[in-house]
């Protein structure tokens, strides 16, 4: 589990532990200079481990930069040494350095974390994944929109965000075909806004309210609600974890190559029913 220090990653790790899984919990536990809001800390990752252990499950925690495949390889090896096998990979780590104030470096850091990080996570894990295993990659509804966050208000980090998430959508489709013979499923989840530190950050608020210099949460909430037919401001991390657990378990053993939209209907105006008129 990458990005396990907090947010969606922590939620997925804890929920999977509650269902009986032992967890390899990985997080950078450092800030990335081009990303304006603070990232998870050592204390956050330790809290995730404590929550996993509260379900009487084993957990290995490792500080690792998903942009460096060797660091992920070391984390996987440590987990294999402790647990003896690897059945599920959740490639979840991501950043969103949105806004016109971000430097061009934000584009490269976002691509490196959000896409190369997923690629590295899968590559480091695949030699150890048991036949019949499951790979779950975190995308975003931004990957499925015509422009997503690729517009000036979201800055170079926004462009990198949409591009990286689109690459994830393509990656799971292609890997699913190549791994089907081993019955290893590869799927993507594409959440709507999620109630995490990534969403509730100054650059994100400014991206959604470019008309204001320093918008508050209250000033952003109506804009967020207007992007969902269900008038959702955001999902809770646990709402996404429900789908992650489903894709990890045997009930989804014949589901692969899919793009799971967890979006409160956000994509309905931008998609077709898939049938002829």
Briefly note the structural class of the backbone: alpha/beta
The CATH class is Alpha Beta
Beta-strand portion reads: 5-15%
The largest pleated sheet is described as: 4 strands, parallel
**Fraction of residues in helices?**
40-55%
CATH-defined fold name: Rossmann fold
Overview of the molecule:
This protein is an alpha/beta fold and 277 residues long. The chain has a single domain, classed as Rossmann fold. The protein is built from eight helices and six strands, in the order H-E-H-E-H-E-H-E-H-E-H-H-H-E. The strands form two sheets. The chain has a four-stranded parallel beta sheet, with helices on both faces. Helix 1 packs parallel to helix 2, helix 3 runs parallel beside helix 4 and helix 4 runs parallel beside helix 5. The longest helix is centred in the middle third of the chain and has 25 residues. The model has no long low-confidence stretch (mean pLDDT 95). It comes from Prauserella sediminis. One of its GO terms (molecular function) is oxidoreductase activity.
């Amino acid at each position: 589990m990458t990005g396990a220090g907090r947010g969606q990653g922590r939620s997925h790790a804890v929920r999977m532990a509650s269902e009986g899984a032992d967890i390899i919990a990985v997080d950078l536990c450092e800030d990335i200079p081009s990303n304006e809001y603070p990232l998870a800390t050592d204390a956050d990752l330790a809290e995730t481990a404590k929550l996993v252990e509260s379900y009487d499950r084993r957990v290995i925690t490792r500080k690792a930069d998903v942009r460096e495949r060797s660091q992920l390889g070391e984390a996987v090896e440590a987990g294999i040494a402790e647990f003896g096998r690897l059945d599920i990979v959740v490639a979840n780590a991501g950043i969103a350095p949105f806004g016109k104030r971000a430097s061009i470096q934000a584009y490269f850091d976002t691509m490196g974390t959000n896409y190369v990080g997923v690629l590295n996570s899968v590559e480091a894990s695949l030699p150890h994944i048991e036949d019949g295993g499951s790979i779950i990659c975190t995308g975003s509804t931004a990957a499925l929109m015509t422009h997503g966050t690729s517009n000036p208000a979201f800055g170079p980090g926004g462009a990198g965000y949409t591009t990286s998430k689109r690459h994830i959508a393509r990656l799971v489709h292609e890997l699913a075909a190549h791994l089907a013979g081993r019955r290893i499923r590869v799927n993507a989840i594409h959440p709507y806004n999620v109630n995490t530190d990534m969403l509730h950050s100054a650059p994100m608020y400014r991206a959604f309210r470019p008309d204001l210099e320093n918008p508050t949460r209250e000033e952003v909430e109506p804009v967020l609600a207007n992007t969902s037919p269900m008038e959702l401001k955001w999902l809770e991390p646990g709402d996404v974890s429900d789908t992650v657990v489903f894709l990890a378990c045997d009930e989804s053993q014949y589901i692969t190559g899919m793009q799971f939209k967890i979006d409160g209907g956000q994509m309905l105006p931008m998609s077709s029913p898939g049938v002829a008129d």
